[in-house]
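[STRUCTURE TOKENS]
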Amino acid sequence: MTLLSPRFAAVSVLCCALTAATAPLHASADPGQTWFVSATAAAGGNGTEATPFNSLLAVQQASGDSDTIIVLAAPLGTPPLDGGIALKPGQHLVGRQAPGSVAAVANTTDANDGDAVRLAPDTEVSDLTVTSAKRGGIYGHNVGTTVLTGNSIAATNRACHDGFVVQPFPPMLGVPFGMSLPVAPNVVALNNGWAGIMIDSDGGASTLTIERNTVHDTACGDGIDVRTTGTAQVTATITDNLTENINEGVAKLSVLAVGMQSTGTSSLTASVRGNTQRNIAIPANDPLNAVADSEGIFVNAADRARMRITIDRNSYRHGGGHLSANGIEFVTSNGTPDSEVTLTNSEFIDVPGDIVQNLNLSAEGARHVMTIDGLTASGSNFPAAVLNPYVPGNLGSCLFSASFGRDNTTALTLRDAHLSQCSADGIGVYAYSPSGPAPATATMSFDIADTTVSNAAVADLHVRTVGDLAELTGKVENSRFGGDIVLGQSDSTLGAGSVIDFGGGRLGSTGNNCFAPTTAAALATPSLPVDHPGSWPTCR
């Protein structure tokens, strides 16, 4: 049986002090009956506050739909209520916290597939501490209107079950050679460990509220994951959560602090605000993290899904792993999904790979749009900038935006960004079009304004195309580039409307940019079409 350590308790008390311990946010109109359970209760209780049950199984069996279950606080060091609990529709599971005590549960058994809390439709879990779970801390499938708030979850997925799987995408065989080759099958997929909090939906409508939770010290897997598939229609609010010390585990290829995914014809609309990720896949916590593919926030679209994700006031600091570790990654894997991510007022600091990654990997004609307004990205550290001309992504750019399809629509808008200490490019834009018999219809666009790049190891702005592209457009204004500007193409044909406008050109850029002293000579005969105001003012 797992004892509640003072370290876990401290996190729980801090988290849960922010919420009312006994006032659930009812998901259903009928409050039902209230039951009590305590880790310090004697056997033979009847579930009242005076004589509570002493096991989760007892209160699970006694309670009914729409009832409230109160987990009473127990002194620090008391073994948690073990065995997990499966909620019934409309129930509220509430931890009643008290100074020097904590309301704690665990599941070290195979009951409920090893989940500490199994949700039902229209349930709420609040102010609870999960100290350990064989699989998930809190898990639900097709949960309707569900609220998870003020919970502290640790040491989940001790059995290292697979959970989130990054959807298959084609390997980019021609990228290292700068050659346009036929598209390869979708064969690359990455498995993750089961998340501390995970919600799955494959049909119907669900409304999720996940707020003020702490997920930390996972044994083998992600922090918070929301997945939609089939025909599900999900709206999620993910607010003010902390994910910390998230570990990849054995035989896993990826780990996510916060993951969102839509496949099939499902849709996910999510508001992700005020969340914090700290110490994601740090080797000091687990040596396996040295080769982790870690992500702070991960958004993954595939098939014919629709995603609309808004991220505001996110703070990411200190990630470990290998070259593909990112602060935030927005990736379309395959199919023809329609996905948009808007990122505002956020920071991503200290990660090995590309700090912000915007990838449209589908070879089938996906729409993929990322808008950023207010970004600090600093401190990538993967030491492979020398490979940048050959493998332009996953090498430590502060921001990397790429398309790898012949018929994709890929767009990046960047406003008010400060990018620094990049171990590859400051901003990398890469359009790769596989070879094919029909004319390419892919378009790639970027719009950069009010942005500063400094201390990039390769180039402050690096734009490269490979293969046929219907249109490449770039608009740059009111921005500072103290390092190199690199424009290149290989095995490439661009449509007539293609241009990069640095000022006074066809796309309406106002100019007002400044550059390194070497820029004028380097772009005297650019290999991509350029409009500029006739000079390249030097940054001072």
